[in-house]
Amino acid sequence: MPAITLTINNDLISARQGQTLLEVAREHGIEIPTLCHLDGLEAMGGCRLCLVELQGAPRPVPSCVTKAAEGMVVTTHSDKLVEYRKMLVELLLAERTHTCSICVQNNNCELQTLAAKLGIDHVRFDYLHQQLPMDASRERFALDHNRCVLCLRCVRVCDAVEGAHTWDVRGRGSTSRIVADLDRPWGTSTSCTDCGKCVQLCPTGALFKKGATVGEMKKERSFLNRILERRRLAAQGGTP
Amino acid sequence: MSRLRLATAWLGGCSGCHMSFLDLGEQLIEISDAIELVYGPLVDAKEFPEGMDVTLIEGAVANFENLELLQQIRKRSKLLISFGDCAITGNVTSLRNFFSVDDLLTAVYHAGPGSAPRSDEADQVLPELLPRVLPLHQVVEVDAYIPGCPPDPERILAVLSSLLKGEAVTLSEVQRSFG
Questions:
Q1: CATH class of A83-232
Q2: Do A34 and A22 touch, CB atoms closer than 8 A?
Q3: Does the UniProt entry include the keyword Oxidoreductase (chain B) (predicted)?
């Protein structure tokens, strides 16, 4: 692959053609926060936490879906970007009801960790306290919309890795909801295979295994790269 | 050197943050030379005193009594610190914001089991609920935050130690998570 050269935070950095800015930054030890992104799943640019500034661009761009190009001049941590990231996470905390203290995911949660990392010790916006339903109709798993950040990892992994495409999204903006089988109770879904991949990749306590009480839910994600690696080998004609 | 005049207050919360404060254990004795605890659930004082250096406030603002006390504390304290998740986010106390006050009281005291304690007499004694439970910083200016449900004693000690040294309150990344 041809090499290209770009500037990130005043350093000249070489990258391979086709790499995203997020990949290049991480390869060089520059930590850009993400929430919807997960290695192995198709990048979506949904959460906007990975926004970076490009010289000459009128507005920040999401680094997870922006390809590195020759001569680009990128800034990853300007005061404005740091403030935007904080604001985005505060808005997520205010929009739904993420009461950490009574969540199955307490102390194992990506949103909780991210907030602490970004220095959020309070939220400046009004909490909406929308009373959203919980779907506990599936035998092994449950979905609590109050904890969902709409990262769509569940939708993507169910489609691309499990091949079931049980999950989708209904509505727009802050009224968006994750739905199973075109909006039926999850328990009546005929496409869901109960594989649990969506549950393990969910960054918060929105998707969880039934029977977990506060702080008990831990997620196991190693399956994703294992499956994708075997697929890659099989596609090359090797032994999976 | 004069001692740091410290108060604590308990608004809409479970007192778990105060329990965590007590969990400082022997360290409380070590800092007692530098701190004078003058008001709070752990002290027998009826009126909130004037001229506080620091006040730690546990709990969210849930009723008019909380609201009045908080405003009085703000006027009488140099530094006001939101102490624990209820004070900072509303936490469990604010889960009643899913309902209107009328629906809530009806569900709990009229439709629920047992007899309803609501009467003219009760209305004169019990403080009236605010329409919504609020975090402290939506009512008054807050100078620092100690997240946690409850904040563990190490967090409380970190904050008290920096106050005693006259430094700004800063908690490390692992010490400032909610929950």
A1: alpha beta
A2: yes
A3: yes
Q: What is the ipTM of this complex?
A: 0.92
B171–A115 C-beta distance less than 8 A: no
Residue ranges and CATH numbers for the domains of chain B are 4-96+131-168 (3.40.50.700)
Assess contact for B142 and A122: CB atoms under 8 A.
yes
Closest CA to A104 of A131, A133, A144: A144
Q: Which of A113, A121, A124 sits opposite B147 (nearest CB)?
A: A121
Instruction: Give the model confidence (pLDDT) of A10-53 as tens digits.
Output: 999 999 999 999 999 999 999 999 999 999 999 999 999 999 99
CA distance A222 to A152: 19
| pLDDT recorded at residue B119 | 61
Class of domain A3-77: alpha beta
Question: What CA–CA distance (Å, rounded) separates B92 from B66?
Answer: 16
Q: Give domain limits for chain A.
A: 3-77, 83-232
Q: Which residues of chain B neighbour A127 with C-beta distances below 8 Å? A: 89-90, 94, 97, 135
Touching check for A115 and chain B: CB below 8 Å? yes
Q: How confident is the model at residue B115 (pLDDT cuts 50, 70, 90)?
A: low
By the CB < 8 Å criterion, does A123 face chain B?
yes
Task: Mutation target for B interface from A92, A110, A129: give the one with most B CBs within 10 A.
Answer: A129
